[in-house]
Amino acid sequence: MGRYLLQSGISGVQPKVMIDARERATLRSSSYIVKSWGGDYPNLAANEYFGMTAVKRSGLPTPEFYLSEDGRLFVMKRFDLTEEGRNLGFEDMCVLQGTGADGKYDSTCERVVKSINSYVSPQHRGAAREIFFQSLLLSVALRNGDGHLKNYGVIYDDPLGNDIRLAPIYDVVTTTAYIPRDIPALSLGGSKKWWSGAALRAFGVSHCGLSQGKIGRIFDAVTAAMMETRGDVRRYADEHPGFRDTAARMEVEWEKGLETLKK
User: Fold this and answer.
1) CATH number at residue 201
2) Which residues constitute the domain of residue 157?
3) Sign of the CA dihedral with 73 first, then 74, 77, and 80 last
4) Residue 102 belongs to a domain
5) How much is the average pLDDT of 134-145?
6) Structure confidence at residue 72 (pLDDT)
């Protein structure tokens, strides 16, 4: 961290660096993003690791990610590089909506769907709307109040825009474990609050074009993924006493989130 803690140009508040990591087994080098945490947000790396684990278990696309053995670093493989090291194009929602980073909290879930419809290639739009809807459910259930415009984007390898798709889901943290009264980063239906399951279902039908049957299956996938991951959180806390306070707060917040989805 001391060697690579430079001005990397990566957005966000959490300290981040970009490094080249080498796998001993294959000697294949790849680029990773490594994030640390300080005293203000204890165990943030583990918090993000388990949040992302729930996202992955629910069936959503995610980058490869890891938690360091000492629990201090969250490591994520860059998703804007191919296995051959070729750069892919990436634009976050701030860029697509023509706003700077200082406006990343000033948009709406409805506008994100409009951006998906405007910029994602037609053959990927239905899947992209479904992914965004499911990620929104997870943000509510996990109490992730930092799902702002810079945490969604599109990725492409064709500069002519023939194969633009929604980028994998990343940067998912239970923010209310540290900020108890935190609220969602984007508004929905004109408000920023932890929306009920009924409000989310209505949004899924009216804006994302999803059937009630599909929405029900997404709710089930989110709930099952969180219940399984909650067991991982408990086991990790048993083995790492320093994580227990954060784990207890996360568990309380996850229970609130799941109850919200039932309303």
Assistant:
1) 1.10.1070.20
2) 88-261
3) negative
4) yes
5) 97
6) 83
Q: What is the mean pLDDT of residues 171-186?
A: 95
Asked if residue 200 belongs to a domain, the reply is: yes
pLDDT at 69: 82
Whether the CB-CB separation of 230 and 219 falls below 8 Å is answered with no
End-to-end CA distance of the chain: 44
- pLDDT given at position 7: 39
For residues 112 and 167, the answer to whether their CB atoms sit within 8 Å is: no
| Number of separate domains in the chain | 1
> Does the residue 1 lie in any domain?
no
Q: Is residue 30 part of a domain?
A: no
Ranges 26-40, 84-98, 176-190: which has the least confidence: 26-40
> How many whole angstroms from its chain centre is CA 255?
19
Question: CA 78, CA 124: separation in Å to the nearest integer?
Answer: 21
Integer Cα distance of 214 and 204 in angstroms: 9
- Quote the percentage of the chain above a pLDDT of 90: 70
How far, in Å, CA of 90 to CA of 201, rounded?
A: 29
